[in-house]
Amino acid sequence: LSGDGTQACASCHTPQFSFGESSQFSTGIDGIQGDRNAMPLFNMAWNWGNKFFWDGRAPHLEAQAIAPVVNPIEMHNTWINAIHSLQNHPQYPQLFEAAFETSIIDSILVTKAIAQFERTLISANSRFDQYLMGQISLTPSEINGFDVFMDETRGDCFHCHGNAANPLWTDNDFHNNGLDASFTDNGLGITTGDPNDNGKFKTPSLRNLAYSAPYMHDGRFATIDDVINHYSEGLVWSSTIDPLMKKVGQGGVQLTPQDKADLKAFLLSLSDPDFINNPDFQAP
Q1: pLDDT digit string (tens) for 184-211?
Q2: Which residue of 6, 21, 143, 145 has the smallest Cβ count within 10 Å?
Q3: What is the pLDDT of residues 251-279, one digit of tens each?
Q4: Domain 9-122 maps to which CATH number in 3.10.20.440, 1.10.760.10, 1.10.340.30, 3.40.50.2000?
Q5: What are phi and psi of 33, to 5 degrees?
Q6: CB 77 within 8 A of CB 67
Q7: Burial of 98 (0-12, 13-18, 19+ CB in 10 A)
Q8: Short-list 277, 283, 284, 275, CA closest to 120
């Protein structure tokens, strides 16, 4: 799909990184670096808000798939050229015939195919999933970490990231989580044009954190410890700070070293090795 044939969706959304990337920023075919970290991809069929990307600019998965092809800092192609390449490929016309009962390829069918594949990326077999199904026991550290996560007087994480009854581990909403006092990237505000949305970004799922570093929309945190330290001591006030960041005046929730370690243990229990190693999701 890329202008020079060197880049695919999987160039920035790699199975081993939970369909994200290990670099802070993505680099397109012209060597130009973006300014956001590629989001991991899984369980998107249950995105009930129907807003994709960090800034919510795509209303559905098909719309999400159309933009990277023509983005000059990503694939830097035109859909006319991309369709020409696919139409003249030795296999794709047959594959489209099998899937859509037509060998005439267009951008609508391409994005539909990509979106349907993305909907099959289901991650649901972490240690915590197995614990909820009564298959295994968690360690005392993981149990305390979950308690920290759910306790408004300690981690207070559940408002944005859900609980055991929400296996997505995200509210699929947008929040300013106290990263900056002023913004070089307005996030949701770019999409809505509303200054009250500046600095808000989509809540990512907490699944598969063991594979998806770095973290945040700009990949600023290299480790889970960095993320926990941000919420514990690094919150920064701004005019659009989310009201859920109740302890921003104290710099954060002020976790003890033990609670930090246990929270990390719980978060890692949400990672699903079967997902990243699924042979159906590897390059053919």
Answers
A1: 999 999 999 999 999 999 999 999 999 9
A2: 6
A3: 999 999 999 999 999 999 999 999 999 99
A4: 1.10.760.10
A5: -95, 135
A6: no
A7: exposed
A8: 275
